[in-house]
Amino acid sequence: MTARALTVERDVAAPAERTWRVLSDWPGQSEWMLGTQVRLTRGDGRSVGSRLVARTGWGPLAFTDPMEITRWEPPRRCDVRHTGRLVRGVGIFTVVPRGDARSTVVWTERLELPFGVVGRLGWPLARPAFEAGVRLSLRQLAHHCEHAP
Fold this sequence. Notes:
With 149 residues, the chain is of the alpha+beta class. It has a single domain, classed as Alpha-D-Glucose-1,6-Bisphosphate, Chain A, domain 4 (2-Layer Sandwich). Helix content is 27%, strand content 42%. A hairpin with a 5-residue loop joins β6 and β7. The longest helix is centred in the last third of the chain and has 32 residues, at 116-147. The N and C termini lie far apart (43 Å).
């Protein structure tokens, strides 16, 4: 498999603690993460070793993405290891404080591309759509953080 990385940042007009709370609400991610439903399958979702399963996509294009939390440093960083057959690699969410009322979210995916040569050749075509989805999701996350109590 060949690994590829994508990093997208979004400034949020909300304090880091609020941004972290919204970001790490796994079931609540369906409110801002494009086409994704997340459920906890083991642990408390707030510690290393907790496991989650995301269902991403629509209809016949949906897939299951099991993950395990491998790093948990609230309210700053969470790493998950994607352990599925289709999606493998590491996802990293980082929240950077920007004073009392602002923060920046950094979402990094280091993906091991499936399908050998086809995956490597297809990545330049798939990457722009994947990045657009991450950007849209982060825009929606920022909106939720900015309007959360």
